[in-house]
């Protein structure tokens, strides 16, 4: 079996090797600070008794699961703490496949490249449903593509790479589509704290035994390297997912879970609001500069990314590397996300230098 | 698909719920201290710049991989840092299955229960090769059981649960058996620092493109909850394993990796020696008391466990629970490890109260 290794790491390595000053807009790594309580939590943990350094419960520290269950309004038994959203999505997709109601996974186009990678690894096949230019997904298109072969429908809102935020009606209809075909809607909501539109709607708002919600603290607490995420399963699906988690990872890393728990308890809501506002300002700055250059772009409703299109400069890996070499701006090739975005380049707004990056782009394409 | 969930967590929960004073000898959780440098490393990390809180390289911090490669005498490209030995074994077994040279996994009997669990999860079948009463494995038996269907041979030395340490000749012949059937020898060496016999021999000592070695810092640094392990692959097998690791977990947890790196660099060899001697003393204390009771037992050559047999008291879950309830000693049922040990109980020597535990057992079975 060969996997399609996501291009992220390749592009990041290429940018790291460049000898010029490169503005890194490749990956969704927040450049803002984690909450202070996260650091305090880690210090506390470092001084704990030796027995605290041993296996946490396989499905995560019980206080952390309780905190999440309480915030999300679900039963604690439905919550499995995972090694980031990456493992949460892997468990969710594997769990959907194991129901033996087909082995096809419906994905959106454009798509976050880890989803097709996971699908292939799990022995599934993939079918893509196109979104519109703004990245919105029409549930009628999902129903048209679904069949008895459909094991799962995987969606991501706020969306990477398009920035689309699906309204409540879309989410409700996606759950209904999953139910109609006895499939599982997997709703990856890792950017939920970065909804700039006020329209974000969690799939947890639709009661159903046909949806799994995945999330992580990677983005909301600015700690992509800690690897603390979670999945919320319907009661009848959770046992096997928990077993798979145990058989793959035994448990997640305890210092990280402890620090996240401490941060959740002690962090003021203002922390989240400030980072969201920071992102909103960066979107404005970056798109204003693109406007000035007459470039086409999408204005994100949420998440960290702006997709831009420059006349005669398609979103290939070669072109991304050329921008790194010639103007020191590192983005991601649009075609990494699907054919529909092959003319586009994706820029992650995770640097204070978005204005400078936009100016370099404008000057280059002038 | 239903998995056989390992019993460890069930027994630990049962022991936790008991209202009496229970001596916990269930799981391989060290009760001794982690090295001081591990704590220092975690404190250092807690104060690091925000960019250090973001994704590490998928296959692990490069300094940690270099440190491991250097100590183990392998190329850094062969090393993948994993979420503990659990993920390392999962990746190794999955990688062996993906070669499409058969889907049967050869396991020892008795066996560490996670191995058959992983085999089933990966869609493989299992065949068991019996060890002798001391837990030694005869490579001729392995060859007799192997066939074109054999994808992998999974061994563990020092062994959980028997305490057997395989001599160099056994290890060499196991690698040869894997080569003869174009299978992969997976050598789980997580207890390598707890060889009490001086006979331990790593499979890395036998140069071959047919063996994968797995390990972790869980036991050697007394941090089962940190989840930092590694697998060393032959060059031609590493790429796909790295992809699977990325698609399942994205990366391991960075604070834990950083703390482990710091601990490896700063910890005196005396730390490891002291813990090994502590374990040696506990083995003596516990087996002396069992001797006094006329119980049968195995003297471990390594690892943390003593298997004991009490006349007319087979190693069932019900009997383990009865010991928890009546004398406050929590072990593991022998039959969790295979039929050959169904008359036995396994006790992990990870408590300073081994003498008291032995006395309680002696009195109970007197």
TrEMBL record, chains A, B:
Family: Belongs to the class-I pyridoxal-phosphate-dependent aminotransferase family.
Keyword Transferase: yes
Organism this protein belongs to: Natrialba asiatica (strain ATCC 700177 / DSM 12278 / JCM 9576 / FERM P-10747 / NBRC 102637 / 172P1)
Alphabetized UniProt keyword annotations: Aminotransferase, Pyridoxal phosphate, Transferase
Keyword check for Aminoacyl-tRNA synthetase: no
Domain Aminotransferase class I/classII large: 20-360
Origin: domain of life: Archaea
Subunit structure: Homodimer.
Molecular function GO labels: pyridoxal phosphate binding; transaminase activity
One Pfam assignment: Aminotran_1_2
Protein's GO biological process: amino acid metabolic process
Protein name: Class I and II aminotransferase
Cofactor(s) essential for the protein: pyridoxal 5'-phosphate
């Amino acid at each position: 079996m060969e996997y399609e290794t996501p291009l992220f790491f390749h592009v990041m390595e290429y940018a790291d090797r460049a000898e010029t000053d490169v503005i890194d807009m490749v990956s969704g790594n927040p450049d803002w600070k984690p909450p202070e309580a996260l650091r305090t939590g880690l210090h506390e943990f470092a001084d704990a008794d030796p027995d605290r350094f041993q296996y946490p419960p396989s499905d995560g520290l019980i206080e952390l699961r309780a905190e999440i269950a309480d915030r999300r309004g679900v039963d604690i038994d439905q919550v499995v703490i995972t090694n980031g959203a990456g493992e949460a999505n892997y468990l969710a997709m594997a769990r959907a496949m194991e129901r033996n109601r087909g082995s096809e996974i419906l994905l959106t186009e454009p798509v976050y490249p880890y989803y097709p990678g996971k699908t292939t690894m799990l022995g599934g096949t993939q079918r893509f449903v196109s979104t519109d230019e703004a990245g919105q997904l029409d549930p009628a298109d999902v129903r048209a593509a679904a069949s008895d072969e459909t094991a799962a429908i995987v969606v991501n809102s706020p969306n990477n790479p398009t920035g689309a935020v699906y309204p409540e009606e879309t989410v409700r209809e996606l759950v209904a589509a999953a139910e109609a075909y006895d499939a599982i809607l997997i709703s990856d909501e890792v950017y939920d704290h970065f909804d700039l539109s006020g329209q974000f709607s969690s799939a947890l708002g639709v009661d159903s035994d046909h949806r799994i919600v995945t999330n992580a603290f990677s983005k909301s607490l600015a700690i992509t390297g800690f690897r603390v995420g979670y999945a919320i399963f319907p009661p009848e699906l959770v046992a096997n997912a928990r077993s798979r988690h145990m058989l793959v990872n035994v448990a997640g890393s305890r210092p990280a879970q402890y620090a996240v728990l401490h941060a959740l308890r002690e962090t003021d809501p203002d922390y989240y609001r400030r980072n969201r506002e920071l992102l909103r300002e960066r979107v404005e700055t970056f798109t204003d500069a693109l406007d000035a250059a007459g470039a086409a772009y999408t204005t994100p409703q949420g998440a960290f990314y702006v997709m831009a299109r420059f006349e005669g400069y398609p979103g290939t890996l070669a072109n991304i590397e050329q921008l790194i070499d010639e103007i020191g701006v590192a983005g991601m090739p649009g075609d990494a996300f699907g054919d529909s975005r092959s003319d586009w380049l994706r820029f992650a707004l995770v640097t204070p230098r978005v204005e400078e990056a936009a100016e370099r782009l404008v000057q280059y394409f002038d």
